[in-house]
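Now for one protein, fold included:
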Amino acid sequence: MKKKILVVGGGGREHAIIKALKKSPDCGEIWCAPGNGGISYDAKCKNIKSTDVDTMVGFAVEEKFDYVVVAQDDPLALGMVDALAAVGIPAFGPDKAAARIEASKVFSKDLMKKYGIPTAKYETFDDPAKVMEYIKAEGKYPVVIKADGLALGKGVIIAVNHEEAKEGLHEIMEEKVFGTSGNHVVVEEFLTGPEVSVLAFVDGKTVVPMVSSMDHKRALDGDKGLNTGGMGTVAPNPYYTADIAQQCMDTIFLPTIRAMQEEGRPFTGCLYFGLMLTPKGPKVIEYNCRFGDPETQVVLPLLDTDLVDIMLAIWNGTLDQLDIRWKNGCAACVVMASGGYPKKYVTGLPISGLDENGQTANCFVYHAGTKLDDETFLTAGGRVLGVTATAETLPEALETAYAGVKTISFQDAHYRKDIGQRALKALS
């Protein structure tokens, strides 16, 4: 029988998940809450805040959903999966106890230290004066300062000198730009090497990595400017070789899953490994307890196995019995953002160049921050669209994605012109 499915969230990642679910013959009616303008062409949308756990669960009961995909970090950290389980509705994503692996950087760093999982040297603090004392004593720049809690992918400062460290710390801990997430901070050594994002399907005991990807977090070309939620991605990541993949499985992926079991917090859903391939081997930069954004926009188009089947296998604890296959080829996503993002930006600007379904030729356009006004798409967020293409080779995928970007316009649209260039260098 076809499944009636609800996806919780309203960005580009959720749009990509919905498009992948819709390919399944077992996917029936699909809803998204809150969704957005572009998503409304692929799913019925219900305007419920993703963090409003009680209302969302009440809606899921009322509509008799067979399955709920909780795609966003905040509702996972608030225990939405636990609340759905309490009313007998299966859900994709970790429970509140396991979601702590992302919700608290202090927890995740301490977990890695306890179980010998390779990561950057670090210390944790709740007093800004002590942070500066520690940084001064270490005497090494750049230094990484991270807000403990969730911060929409932006709570990380890479300070190259004393002034930047002091200013970043002031923003996080005193001005509280990320709210209570800045009550505690983690100070880390700065690691060097290529970055790799690896998403993995996990059912508590089995871990199945997905195709690797490369994110581009900085706002401007040449990896300059402020950290963002991600300005574009490519998959697979050419730095992530078969040998490195095996090393990561042995030293990071399996030990993490076993550590979470040992802690009485078995992880199910999608676990995101943010990795740095350092001269001393792969190390964990961060964990996320859900699909990454915009990594999902390049990974899921390459998935060949039915996503509904995978999610049900995770729920049933039978992931080890499923053969998960991937398409040959590459994918590239270029994010079109509002001018001024990740700082202040204007919304409500009309978007031109999209067809009646919010798409453009030869690409998937994943809507991150759009709304519909009388059949016109308007901007409604910092990251507005993720223009994605797949092809046999990475240069072809990039060429098609950028050709798609050029057909779409809105006032002050901002996008990076160099997505995938580091990956191309690695291939040459």
Q: What stands out?
A: The radius of gyration is 21 Å. The chain has a mean pLDDT of 94.
